[in-house]
Amino acid sequence: MAYIDHGPSSNFVKASRETIWQICEELFPRYRALCGPDFRDSLQILQKYLDLEIKEFATGTEVGDWVIPPEFVVNEAWVEGPDGERVIDFDDHPYHLHIYGGAFDGEMELEELLEHVSTHSDLPDAIPLRQSYYRYNWGLCATQNQVKTWKPGKYKVHIDTELNDGALRVGEYYLPGESKKEIMVCTYLCHPYGANDNLSGVSVATELFRRLSEMENRRYSYRLCIWPETIGALTWIDANRDKLKNIVGGYEVAICGDDAPIRYVQSYYGNALVDRAFAHALRNSGLPHEILEYDGVCNGSDQAHFNAIGLRVPFGHPIRGGHITPEIPGKKQIGYAEYHSSADDLSLIKPENLSDILEITWDAIQAIERARTYKATFTGTPFLSKHGVYPYQHGLGTGTTATKSTFGGLAYYQLMIDADGEKDLLAIADGSALPIEAYDDAVENFLKAGLIEDTSGEDVA
């Protein structure tokens, strides 16, 4: 398996960064909800980049303990003040209206109106994002500074929304490998006008699979799913129970374009192959990062539904700022100030931040691909030169001090010690503090010389 140069200045990285940003710009203006026409249209835009299969599941269908909601359509929504001027208008910004808010027409005094209007407690110029999922209560949002200008009197409220029969849609892309065992990546697309939450994850995951589709000799199979948050994951799980047994693990990619350090939320187990691979990629990235223990739905979003009771499919979650989590004694609170607000726009995310997440996730997958188990055919210490595999080409054997340029040679020594059939190559690499790709040459030559054999089988991991 050739290891592709994807250092910060490589053309490989630059091309990916441009594609990621283009996806964000194209999708940002769409008003998406859990189910509805703009969600469908957004998946169709993504089909220009990746040949997604769009699967539909009828509204009203029971999926486990849940029911797929209707499609949500907004015709118009506005509030007129006592002077006849509009103080809120959906056309100005869609966050003025609760997603899945019900229809309403009526007049009321300012005091009553304010009971139905949410503002952002920390950002006076931002409109909060609010939802009425599965309740369909009407509600409005505005900035603190807007509300301060409203005068007492009668206000006219007009909300024209529809809840229609339709479908929940999932964009799915499957890449077969040598094994039916698969690694799954998921991300969600339902937030309207949310750049960090979550066009960041959608763009990174799409480009990741564009790259995977060009990778030859894939050991594992790979599946990408893009759906509405929570109900999309639950719908897919309900419809694909037979596929779950083949999923070795997965990643939910989301909220990864802001300036916070890279964080990785572990799976329920904490030491699954996906966890070890991502931790390995982070350690070797040289970038500031933090690894968080699994914390259910607080940190997890769709990750939690795969790690849930009765399933326990190990899913990790690369993020940056992340979902705002509650203040719990002994637990680290995370999140970013602009979360679920109109301030979460394209100015908040940066191409280089998205690119870093892409490259680390790519490195994690490369680690997963390399994490085979090898068993020595020799006993004791072999005379490598006799077998024609001494790492002279890596600068060893001349008495010089080992440096980063000789890592590939040091891997020969480590493989000679650790290839006992008990530890996979990822564990060996972590134990040696060498990046796993440093072992490529040693593994290839040891196999050719018959010094080791691959004992991985179908069910490694």
How does this structure look, described?
This protein has 461 residues and is α/β, with parallel strands linked by helices. It has three domains: 11-67 and 167-370, Zn peptidases (Aminopeptidase), CATH 3.40.630.10; 71-164, 3-Layer(bba) Sandwich (Glucose Oxidase, domain 1), CATH 3.50.30; 373-454, no CATH class. It contains 14 helices and 19 strands. The protein has helices at residues 11-27, 37-46, 110-114, 144-148, 195-212, 231-239, 241-244, 273-283, 297-300, 302-306, 351-370, 407-418, 425-432, 440-448; strands spanning 53-58, 62-63, 66-67, 71-80, 86-89, 104-109, 117-118, 140-141, 154-164, 167-175, 182-188, 221-227, 247-252, 262-265, 289-292, 315-319, 373-376, 420-424, 452-454. The strands form five sheets. An eight-stranded mixed β-sheet has the order 1-10-12-11-13-16-14-15, with helices on both faces. Strands 5-4-9-6 form a four-stranded antiparallel β-sheet. Strand 11, helix 5 (195-212) and strand 12 (221-227) form a beta-alpha-beta unit. The radius of gyration is 26 Å and the shape is elongated. The two termini are 19 Å apart.
